[in-house]
Amino acid sequence: AVVSVALGAAFVVSRLIARRITDPIPALIAQMEAVEEGDWEARVEVKSGNELGVLGRSFNQMTTKLKALIEEVYTSQIVRREAELKALQAQINPHFLYNTLDVIYWTAEMEKAPSRPRWSRPWPGCSSWASTMGKNSPRWAERSSTWRATSSSSE
After folding, report:
1. What is the pLDDT of residues 17-28, one digit of tens each?
2. Mean pLDDT of 12-39
């Protein structure tokens, strides 16, 4: 009888120890599945300092770093796309200006307008650089001063 009580007590104690060790595993698995589905806020509650506690703390650190890296990549993609958009705008604006002045000039030419605005005449070389330089380019002033000198000397 004493042996059976001792065996029963040993079984209960071993069962409690086994539960204490294995119970955190399903919680860790559930949080890993949450991260796998895109929940970067998933965390494991760490209650012990054993190997499962180390795994839980490492998992929490990993998800924190993972979230930071995803945000960094997302932010860098936004910055890159904004830079691409600005570059396209810098190419479109001078091209639009050139086309507008060209339309004004040729409309006046076709209508045989007696007085055509001097500024509407497309300047030499404009089409070659209009698509590659913006008005904020350091060479804008150089090109526009060359144009002013060319257009005033040719009239």
Report:
1. 888 778 888 889
2. 88
**How many whole angstroms separate alpha carbon 89 and alpha carbon 136?**
11
Is the separation of the CB atoms in 128 and 95 below 8 Å? no
Instruction: Show Cβ contacts of residue 108 under 8 Å, excluding neighbours closer than 6 positions.
Output: 116, 117, 120
**Taking the model in full, what pTM does it have?**
0.52
Structure confidence by residue, pLDDT tens digits, 64-88: 999 999 999 999 999 999 999 988 8
Nearest Cα residue to 74 out of 35, 36, 40, 43: 40
Residue 9: how many CA atoms within 13 Å on its side-chain side?
6
Token duo for residue 112: 């045989």
Q: How many residues does the chain have?
A: 155
Taken in order 8, 10, 15, 16, the sign of the CA dihedral is: positive
Indicate the DSSP class of residue 8.
H
Task: Return the H-helix or E-strand segment holding 11.
Answer: helix 2-22
Position 154 scores a pLDDT of 45
The closest alpha carbon to 120, from 98, 95, 136, belongs to 98
On the 0-12 / 13-18 / 19+ scale of CB atoms within 10 A, 63 is: buried
